[in-house]
Structure prediction request, 249 residues.
Amino acid sequence: MAHSGLPELPDFIAILAGHFKNNLFLKYIYLWEYVFFAVFTAVIICLIAYFATRKLKLIPNRLQNAVEYFVEVIHNFVCGILGPKGSKYFPFIATLFVYILFMNLLGLVPFFKSATSSLSTTFALAICVFIYLQYTAIKEHGFFGYLDHLAGSPRGAMAFTVILPVFMLFLHILSELIRPVSLSMRLRGNIWGDEILLAIMAGFGLKGLLLLFFSMLMSILKSIVQAAVFVLLTTIYFALILKQEEEHA
Prediction:
């Protein structure tokens, strides 16, 4: 993993690695710090889920109530786009949103870093979406049915042509391949840009304290928005597949 020469807010791994320069373990962790923070975020989410569901009550406590409300909002959002079949894909989409949101916000905590400011992390997430989408499309329509969809579902006179269906097939395949690239670069660019901006603002010292505070609030909002955008686009991709299935049903 390469570290850019642009200003960055120091995280505790970078500080420890810089202080103990001869420590091979810290050097190794520093090399893979984005992976470390991605795993760390997953552990935090698992702990919250564990404590929220450890003793479920009919009258929930604050943590259980907050988690249940959060889950209900995401479920309604997904099913509002996908319809009744949304419940089938809700666990995957909800997990994406929670994971990305927590990774985005973690970078705003002093001495921590957002794993989503690394292209390797966001691209891995986008690849997961891409693979699940292709699997779902083939499972729902069959391999040849999916190819028919990618070719523009040629019918009538268009079915006897060659150039147009082949062109549509090539265009849709290219579109499918571009999706994970655009998903990953959009998320990474926004989160990475926020981290650089906050580092620059912090460099102003006390003079830029008010501006830093405002930028921090905007970064919190952007962290939520970017997680929502990633999930919204993912849900729309699923909706296109399921809509195609309903049209042929």
